[in-house]
Structures are given as structure tokens and as C-alpha cells.
Amino acid sequence: MKRIADIAGVRLGTSFRERVLHEPTGKFLVVQGKDVGADGLLVLDGMARVTEVPGKGAPDTLSAGELVFQTRGVSYRAASVPDPTPPMVAAGSLFILRPDASRLLADYLVFFLNLPTTQVVLRQSATGSTIPNLRRDAIERLEVPLPNLSDQHKLVAVGRLVRQQADIEARLNHLRMQELHLLATTRAAARTKSSTHSISQR
């Protein structure tokens, strides 16, 4: 087990003084909490764009091999930065983690952070009564099991298969419920029609 502080750099996203307003022709995509998907991927569709990023010097743009991490609320999801990466910055409500690539895969860290058991630990570490949030030191203290890189790749692949299976099962259950609803309404309509026909014959 290794603490995140020992195997990854942690920094805060860019602070926007006001609400991020979408500029269709803006150069920079802005990653916010809503853009962190439950599947460990960033949702690029609908992501806000801005022309300028606040702060001095060059914008702190995201790079492949990094991940973004939600810090507020009751769910602390993580997502990998895509490769290739468009010009993209993380909002101040997110932490940016850059793993030591020689020891830790970004996708594996995302996999670990999104595990239900890890989410329980993170919720216990959050502070604040109205909107719980995670402090940087709580993230840096979190311990991560560290298999070799080959095994990390395998665990990430298995995790993806499990998510795909869960998605398929969820879609099947949805279709079954639609089928049951259709069957119930069809039978109800048939009974109503039969009762109306019987009354009309009296």
C-alpha cells in the first residue's frame, strides 16, 4: 500500500471567480464536476468552453496521463484525461492528480478511486455539513494498493468488462419493465373494451 502523496502529484484546478459561461468559439474546454462520468471517463459533449482562463501566466492545462477528481458532494468520482487531449483546464472544484507513470497508471488510479469501497472511505474523510468536501491532505493520505503495471492493466480491463456487463443488464431490465408495462396496459385496455361491449349488449 502506498499513500497517494508518495506516488502522485496533487494540485487544485483553476479558480474561476464567477460561474463558467459557455463561449461556443472558446479555445479552452473547462472540466466541471458534471463532466466527470461514472464510468471513469470525461463527458466531452456539452462541456463549457472559454476564451480566456483566469490567472497569471500560461493556463494550467490538463495532459494525458493525468486524472481529475471531484471534491464536493456525496460522490467523489475520478476520470482520466483523454489522449489526445484538447486544450482543457479543470475548474477549482476539482483536484488534478498526476501519477508517477513508472509505478502507477492513471486508469488504475481512476479504477481504484471509483470503487464503492473507496467511495465509502472518501465520504468518511469529507468535512462540512451542508456540502461535504474533501481536503487535499485527505486525498494525499489515502492508501492505494500498488500491484505491478502489468497487473494494473489487467485490473483496469476487468473493471471495464464488469461495467459493460452492468450496463447491459441495466438496459435489459429497462426493456423488460417496458415490456411488462405494455403487457399490463394492453390487457387493461382489452378488459375495458370487453366490459363496454357487454354493457352495450344489455
Detailed description of the structure:
This protein folds into two domains: 2-146, DNA methylase specificity domains (Adenine-n6-DNA-methyltransferase TaqI, Chain A, domain 2), CATH 3.90.220.20; 148-202. It contains five helices and nine strands; from the N terminus they run βαβββββββαααβα. It has helices spanning 4-7, 106-113, 116-125, 136-141, 149-201, and strands at 2-3, 8-12, 28-31, 48-50, 67-70, 78-80, 88-90, 94-99, 143-144. The strands form three sheets. It has a four-stranded antiparallel sheet. Strand 5 and strand 6 form a beta hairpin. The chain is extended. The model has no long low-confidence stretch (mean pLDDT 88).
